[in-house]
């Protein structure tokens, strides 16, 4: 008799690849052989995940297979065209949820995962199987009008009961309208109800309540003291023989939201503008946090006041600030430093991110958002225990978030050009496409997805734009976006009112220097900066000189440097550094003793605890930083002095934090990183493992390709990586030398699949398994020539 494993074994490689593509979680890790794959595919968790991916009609076909005695009745039972039913059966075979060709049968584990298929209870012979023989005999006697003859065991009594309930119309009418109303509540499922004292034996002549009348006539079966179930035959009679009320074979239409269509160029430019804004705001926020990082809460996450401050800094609503923070975290640009008393800081990856162009930066942010299981919309809400949910906390995690985002965007991608899908239509389409994932969380996630996609620039005026479609398809989205982004400029317009106008995005170096020497006054299509004494002093404190600032602004100004700005820079620079502050705890020195006389005479200097050491030196018991702040509060412009007399740059350097080794910046589901090459390698491993299991391990090792004779190959490290990457691109096998953890060298024949993260992933022909090799343990790589192949045979 053929088993499920035998059926899988008889599938072709293309069919196995299709199965693993549809259910990639079966590959974590790769099963030893096809029998192990069959066992894993039948586990409740694996079956449940596969069922979650089925659309409403395909799921209905599977439920009908569990209910109907023959699949020939599927088209009539579902009121659907036979061709559409055949397509659904093909999908179920591809998912491994139905097996066998004539007729198809539900796969192992499916029946347990769907206890009430089509909302129906078990058939009579199953639902009454828990009754005692005596109670069954009383029930059959009441229904037949005479005691059963020749029924000595429960099996025969159950058979007779099934015959009596095959047409329950008379029994339902005899039970009365109140009993019929109780049945109607359970007719379309779920077929289970809760009552009091269901196990108490009751006869037709003594039944008083509607439930007792139903139990006495076998129209309800008592499963335990409080649970009753409608037998399948009774429910089907009440439904008029129909399995479902309404299961459309095709998805609901994508009803467009009412609005006038906008030109395609306008839609794309609007989305590109939002994409550029998201990149600019993320950079602005992380630059600030690199200098002045917010603390990590003891419970984890970001304090509400810090999120509010970030929103004020970026001049955006709090929900958008929370989105940008979460996206930066998901993209690996932001992390926490340390486990206790940590701070939220940019990572070294942020500096690499800054080196990319705007389109490349946006791509990283968008991919992080798509793959993240964190939900920014939850920030500021309350959890089940009425505790506040903070941004960047673990309470933001929802495992269904990435799948819901992707599903919603896929629906938008299906809409034609100029069609803006309404939120209700989107919910209806997803409700048909993934009915088992429905619920309040998904409903809210859909709304948040639309809002966040617009804020990040994936949609314009509600329509998915071409570069977002490229991103979803796994293609390079940067060229399509780049041509719609404003080109970075390296010129500004400096005006006599001490303002500078940046007519577009600035090149990175100029943007950083200008942010240091001036304050942002307004943003929009053009950014307006204002120069003030405080901003110029900030640049001088950071080590810039007046000549540096003047040269920078002259070089990048589209107009001659206005005299008021030149005077401002010279005036602040002339006073800057006139006083020097060191540590005694601290001291003040200057070339002008009269200046020190004025300081000592000023009452505001009393808290500074100054005393004169020399005509040009004052000492203080305060720390240097406190003394600097006190003198600046008096309107002076001191600088910090090093022990050798040099000026100390007092502007703090930007800080960075490495993500903890155990922290997952983005939690990735198996389907998000399983590509076609990995699946092909897994199929080879399964076939080899199956052969080993069927023919014996020793015989399989003899038939497997052995390493060529001779010492394991050796090659320089960079050449090794280059050769492996070339082998991945062209396909085929290579010969590698590999050191185990004890330093023992061995030879392997490998089909490389992927080289990344310090590892080579590939099919190890000598072990008949997919394996990951640490690159630093590979001693060398050699091409597998025809001679070596003949040696291997």
From TrEMBL:
Q: Name one Pfam family in it.
A: Helicase_C_3
Query: What residue stretches are annotated with the Helicase XPB/Ssl2 N-terminal domain?
Result: 493-614
* Region annotation (Disordered) ranges: 698-719
The UniProt entry's coiled-coil ranges are none
Fetch the InterPro entries from UniProt. WYL_dom (IPR026881), XPB/Ssl2_N (IPR032830)
Tell me where in this chain the WYL domain is found: 720-781
From the Swiss-Prot or TrEMBL record, give the protein name.
Answer: Uncharacterized protein
The organism named in the record is: Actinomadura syzygii
Q: What is the lineage of its organism?
A: Bacteria, Bacillati, Actinomycetota, Actinomycetes, Streptosporangiales
């Amino acid at each position: 008799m053929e088993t499920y494993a035998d059926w899988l074994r008889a599938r072709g490689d293309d069919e196995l690849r299709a199965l693993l593509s549809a259910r990639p979680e079966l590959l974590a890790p790769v099963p030893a052989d096809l029998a192990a794959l069959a066992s894993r595919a039948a586990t409740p968790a694996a079956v449940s995940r596969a069922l979650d991916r089925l659309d409403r009609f395909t799921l209905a076909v599977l439920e009908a297979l569990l209910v109907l005695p023959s699949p020939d009745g599927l088209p009539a039972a579902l009121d659907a065209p036979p061709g559409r039913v055949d397509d659904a059966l093909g999908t179920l075979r591809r998912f491994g949820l139905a097996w066998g060709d004539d007729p198809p049968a539900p796969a192992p584990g499916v029946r347990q995962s769907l206890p009430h298929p089509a909302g129906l209870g078990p058939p009579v012979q199953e639902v009454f199987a828990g009754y005692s023989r005596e109670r069954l005999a009383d029930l059959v006697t009441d229904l037949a009008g005479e005691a059963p003859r020749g029924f000595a065991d429960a099996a025969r009594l159950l058979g007779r009961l099934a015959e009596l309930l095959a047409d329950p119309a008379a029994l339902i009418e005899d039970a009365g309208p109140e009993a019929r109303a109780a049945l109607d509540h359970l007719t379309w499922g779920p077929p289970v109800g809760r009552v009091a004292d269901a196990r108490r034996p009751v006869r037709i002549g003594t039944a008083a309540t509607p439930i007792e009348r139903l139990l006495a006539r076998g129209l309800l079966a008592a499963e335990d003291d409080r649970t009753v179930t409608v037998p399948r035959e009774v429910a089907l009679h009440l439904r008029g023989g129909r399995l479902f009320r309404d299961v459309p074979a095709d998805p609901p239409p994508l009803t467009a939201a009412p609005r006038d269509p906008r030109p395609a160029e306008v839609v794309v430019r609007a989305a590109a503008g939002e994409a550029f804004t998201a990149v600019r705001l993320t950079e602005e926020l992380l630059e600030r946090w690199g200098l002045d990082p917010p603390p990590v809460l003891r419970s984890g996450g970001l304090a509400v006041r810090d999120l509010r401050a970030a929103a004020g800094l970026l001049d955006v609503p709090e929900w958008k600030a929370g989105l940008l923070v979460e996206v930066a975290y998901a993209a690996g640009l932001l992390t926490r430093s340390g486990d206790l008393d940590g701070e939220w800081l940019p990572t070294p990856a942020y500096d690499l991110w800054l080196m990319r162009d705007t389109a490349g930066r946006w791509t990283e942010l968008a991919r992080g958002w798509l793959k993240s299981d964190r939900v920014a919309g939850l920030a500021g809400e309350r959890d089940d225990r009425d505790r506040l949910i903070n941004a960047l906390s673990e309470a933001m995690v929802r495992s269904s978030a990435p799948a819901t985002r992707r599903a919603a965007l896929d629906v938008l991608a299906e809409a034609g050009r100029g069609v803006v899908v309404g939120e209700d239509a989107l919910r209806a389409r997803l409700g048909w496409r993934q009915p088992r994932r429905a619920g309040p969380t998904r409903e809210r996630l859909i709304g948040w997805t639309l809002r966040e996609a617009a804020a990040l620039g994936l949609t314009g005026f509600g329509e998915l734009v071409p570069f977002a479609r490229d991103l979803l398809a796994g293609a390079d989205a940067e060229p399509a976006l780049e041509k719609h982004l404003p080109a970075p400029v390296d010129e500004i317009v400096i005006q006599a009112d001490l303002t500078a106008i940046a007519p577009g995005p600035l090149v990175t170096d100029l943007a950083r220097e200008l942010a240091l020497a001036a304050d942002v006054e307004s943003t929009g299509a053009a950014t307006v900066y204002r120069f003030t004494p405080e901003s110029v002093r900030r640049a001088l404190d950071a080590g810039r000189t007046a000549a540096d600032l003047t040269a920078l602004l002259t070089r990048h100004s589209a107009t001659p440097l206005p005299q008021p700005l030149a005077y401002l820079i010279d005036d602040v620079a002339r006073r800057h550094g006139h006083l020097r502050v060191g540590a005694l705890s601290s001291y003040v020195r200057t070339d002008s003793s009269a200046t020190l006389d004025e300081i000592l005479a000023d009452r505001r200097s009393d808290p500074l605890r100054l005393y004169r050491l020399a005509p040009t030196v004052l000492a203080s018991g305060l720390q240097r930083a406190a003394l600097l702040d006190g003198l600046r509060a008096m309107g002076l412009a001191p600088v910090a002095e090093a022990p050798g007399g040099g000026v100390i740059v007092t502007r703090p350097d930007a800080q960075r934090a490495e993500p903890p080794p155990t922290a997952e910046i983005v939690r990735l589901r198996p389907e998000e990183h399983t590509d076609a090459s990995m699946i092909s390698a897994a199929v080879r491993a399964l076939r080899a493992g199956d052969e080993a299991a069927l023919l014996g391990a020793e015989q399989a090792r003899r038939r497997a390709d052995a390493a060529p004779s001779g010492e394991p190959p050796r090659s320089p490290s960079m050449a090794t990586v280059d050769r492996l990457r070339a082998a991945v691109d062209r396909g085929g096998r290579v010969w590698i030398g590999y050191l185990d953890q004890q330093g023992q060298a061995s030879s392997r024949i490998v089909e490389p699949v992927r080289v990344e993260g310090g590892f080579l992933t590939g099919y190890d022909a000598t072990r008949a398994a997919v394996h990951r090799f640490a690159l630093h343990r590979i001693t060398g790589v050699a091409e597998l020539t025809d001679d070596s192949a003949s040696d291997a045979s």
